[in-house]
């Protein structure tokens, strides 16, 4: 298993049998970093789970093809059409001619703002649908929190790995492979912050009704939880994350940073830049 010492951004690491996370992270001052991950399941019929962000397209493709031959990729499961998940979709479709795209009608429509998704390569996979990938049957399920209406998580009953998409999003003090490297406070604060950041509408929810949705999702009984914006969760951190998720409707909303914050950051940045030295004459 990848440790903190051996962790490198965009270098895939194994999280379960034939299952790999492709990690990336965005610097997010002043709260640390946000993971920006994708996943590959290299079974009998290899599956890409999301396609990474366009900002690192070349590196993401290289990382993915270090795990699986693009000609072997049989499925591309697109959780939703946000840029951090669908940003390299056309490049992936071009390099994986044998892959079928598992998506939704609304995702295709939303992506039409930017490109035409080849409809003859698509298969609709909505909440509750399954796909037979040869040696495993994967399940699509709407997660409790999301920032896009087309979102479906993906559960692999063969490995008990759950790709939770944007649910369990967290800031991290530094990029890391597993949430086990976070302190208890960092873990709790990160879950409460990330959840409210991704889905501020959680404050509008009836806690009891939301709790039922959370429990239903928890009943997938995932043993490993990966997601786009979280290091991998295992062991007791999984029930703890679900408990924190259940609490979110009762937690006061996160207050956005304001222009005063931005002014302060700009002033701090300016004062940390050394004054320009006068140029020597004659240049
Ligand atoms: Fe999203
Ligand atoms: Fe996301």
From TrEMBL:
Gene3D superfamilies, sorted: Ribonuclease Z/Hydroxyacylglutathione hydrolase-like
Occurrences of domain Metallo-beta-lactamase (ranges): 35-196
A Pfam cross-reference name: Lactamase_B
Domain of life assignment: Bacteria
Residue ranges of coiled coil: none
Protein name: Metallo-beta-lactamase domain-containing protein
Organism of derivation: Streptomyces gardneri
Classification of source organism: Bacteria, Bacillati, Actinomycetota, Actinomycetes, Kitasatosporales
């Amino acid at each position: 298993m990848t440790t903190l010492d051996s962790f490198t951004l965009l270098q895939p690491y194994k999280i379960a049998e034939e299952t790999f996370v492709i990690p990336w992270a965005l610097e997010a001052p002043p709260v640390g970093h946000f993971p920006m991950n994708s996943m590959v399941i290299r079974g009998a019929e290899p599956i890409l789970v999301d396609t990474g962000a366009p900002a690192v397209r070349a590196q993401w493709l290289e990382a993915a093809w270090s795990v699986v031959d693009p000609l072997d990729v049989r499925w591309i499961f697109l959780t939703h059409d946000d840029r951090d998940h669908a940003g390299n979709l056309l490049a992936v479709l071009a390099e994986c001619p044998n892959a079928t795209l598992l998506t939704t009608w609304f995702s295709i429509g939303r992506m039409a703002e930017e490109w035409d998704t080849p409809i003859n390569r698509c298969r609709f996979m909505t909440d509750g649908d399954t796909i037979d990938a040869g040696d495993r049957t994967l399940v699509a399920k709407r997660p409790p929190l999301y920032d896009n209406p087309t979102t479906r998580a993906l559960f692999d009953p063969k490995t008990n790995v759950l790709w939770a998409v944007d649910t369990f999003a967290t800031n991290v003090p530094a990029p890391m492979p597993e949430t086990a490297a976070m302190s208890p406070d960092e873990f709790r604060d990160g879950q409460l912050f990330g959840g409210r950041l991704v889905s501020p509408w959680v404050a509008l929810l009836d806690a009891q009704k939301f709790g039922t949705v959370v429990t239903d999702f928890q009943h997938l009984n995932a043993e490993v939880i990966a997601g786009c914006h979280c290091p991998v969760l295992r062991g007791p951190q999984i029930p703890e994350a679900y408990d924190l998720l259940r609490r979110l409707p009762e937690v006061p909303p996160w207050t956005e940073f304001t222009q005063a914050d931005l002014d302060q950051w700009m002033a701090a940045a300016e004062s940390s830049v050394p004054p320009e030295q006068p140029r020597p004459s004659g240049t």
